[in-house]
Specification:
The chain is mainly alpha-helical. It has one domain. The chain is 64% helix and 0% strand. Helix 2 packs antiparallel against helix 6, helix 5 runs antiparallel to helix 6 and helix 6 crosses helix 7. It starts with 18 loop residues before the first helix and ends in an 8-residue tail after the last helix.
């Protein structure tokens, strides 16, 4: 079973006494989706107008960035969001970044990372990967950001809406297992790929 606080079907929780910090922990899903669509488009435009990358190689780098994001999503969810609370600071950190979501999974304002933080991380990635990849980053990072936007969209849908009566229902099933049956399995939200690779897809009990 999930080792976190038992989930509540409605409600929310205040994380910070400071009103500004508290507000920064909340966002409407349309805000990050718009921001990262524009961010990715701007990077691709820069790649087209300021680099010599071919169309084919640009597409290849874009999809490479997308696949890498699914791996990062899995690793962050499994090893950071579900950090074992061995010490008080780790317990507080884990609850603040993810535990509160497990306790209030239907709180729509906390279904995405605050835009200020996610934009900061994306920009740091841009500068870091620019040093490592050179001009390739302007085609690679858009794929990564689109992967993140897709993850946000799916995560929002599975928490805010009833599952559809088609093959997409599996997204709802997988994430419900993680939230309501066993928080130690099914870490992939946008894709189950890495759960199969690392053996965390499903348990018999789930």
């Amino acid at each position: 079973m999930n080792t976190m606080t038992s989930p509540k079907n409605n409600g929310t929780k205040q994380l910070f006494s400071n009103s500004i910090l508290e507000k920064l922990t909340r966002t409407h899903i349309a805000v990050p989706l718009t921001v990262f669509a524009v961010y990715a488009a701007a990077l691709l435009y820069w790649s087209i107008t300021h680099t010599n990358l071919s169309v084919g190689f640009t597409i290849l780098l874009f999809f490479a960035g997308f696949i890498v994001f699914t791996w990062v999503e899995y690793q962050v969810h499994r090893h950071i969001f579900h950090l074992k609370p061995l010490k008080a600071w780790r317990k507080k950190f884990q609850y603040t970044v993810h535990g509160v979501h497990h306790e209030y999974p239907k709180d729509k304002d906390r279904l995405a990372m605050p835009p200020v933080l996610s934009i900061t991380i994306a920009t740091l990635l841009l500068f870091l990967l620019r040093l490592i990849m050179g001009d390739f980053v302007f085609a690679f990072l858009p794929g990564f950001l689109v992967g993140y936007a897709l993850y946000l969209s799916i995560h929002y849908l599975v928490h805010a809406y009833a599952p559809p009566k088609n093959f997409l229902k599996q997204w709802w099933i997988n994430h419900s297992i993680h939230h309501y049956k066993d928080g130690k399995i099914v870490f992939g939200v946008s894709s189950p790929l890495w759960d199969y690779v690392y053996g965390t897809m499903k348990s018999k009990e789930a």
